[in-house]
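Protein folding task:
====================
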Amino acid sequence: MNNFLAHNDIIREEMLESININSVEDLFTQIPAKARMSDLNLPEALSEMQVQKKIKALSKKNNTDVINFLGAGVYNHFIPASVGYVAQRFEFLTAYTPYQPEISQGTLQIMYEYQSMICNLTGMDVANASVYDGATACAEAVLMAARITKRDNVLISDALNPEYKKVIKTYCNAIGIKIEWLEVNEFKTDLTSLDEKVKSEKYACVLIQTPNFYGSIEEINFGEIFTNTKTLLSVCVDISSLSILKSPDVYGADIVVGDIQPLGIPMSFGGPHAGFMACKEKFMRQMPGRIAGRTLDADEKQAFTLTIQTREQHIKREKATSNICSNQALVALSATLYLTLVGEKGFKQAGILSSKNAHKLSKMLAEKNIKTLNKDFYNEFVIEVDNSDKFLADLKSKNIIGGLKLDENKILVATTEMNSEEDLQQYCK
């Protein structure tokens, strides 16, 4: 490749003349003036040495030495150092996410192992090699159910993560799927009318999150409701909760989705994440993304291959279930490394500690006359205070991120295995 050469004035003139415009500015006339930035207001150029000094000075303003009780979909779990070391090796960390059928055996094996782990946790038959994030996974589950049942109405719990709901609305609006929201009562989904609604044979799926956005463990004990119906049960789960809670297959889930951020992915600034999707085998060909499989080569040696690719570049467009060119393979790799390193015992221990800390903090706050509003929770709960802004500001002044403000009097608080006994005491103090 030749070195990049910036366009000079002569080349610019030739380009403008070839498309019959007078100036570069004319290229942007179709964009409304109010949407355009008039001035970047950039400072004078600096040398590399000066830039390094300036960036270091700016970085010192960041306060990272905080005690964290923030959750709402992104959690501060412990990450073994080996996860980052292996994931950033040049064999995996490439400038171009591999998505071709002929990608390396190492990448394919990692995808296969990741899928196997997701299946083990969810109890489902098959899993894809990830999608973009938990919100995308939920939206794709709704579309997937609509394709399978050929219905355009869905029932979704209003206790779903608000960010997930926004993405679902966008997807459904574009494709003409009508959403009916199941109301929330005392921080749990009101399921009193579910039996009647499912029997109407009107809905493609019921999508419910457990633990839900408020941390409450939903009572998904549907019995025979979904037995003799085409309506599918889609469940969004906190993957870390499956270390101690029943897997979704136990209560009859057809599609299981969520975000893998709790599995060795840093909180960062909310990304990048990856979403997981798993389902029963009979629905496999309607699942977006791709699936890696294991087989034997001509020499009877173990080999890995892309078994299914459902994007429109690979199969007929009308049959495609995904236009995703790639997925979050590197993030999925980190999740695979995390589960491998902590093992079944370590994964369960992290879940127990996360839940134990939450219930312990709830009791400690009760002694301070701060009431917890939901009862059955995993590692996240809602507290009631006099003034949410003041409460969080007071904690912040002590280097404690106290949770997520829900309204003027309610705060969502989360704990993980990273919160020590001293952290809980500091919060209450």
User: Anything to note?
Assistant: The longest strand covers residues 302-309.
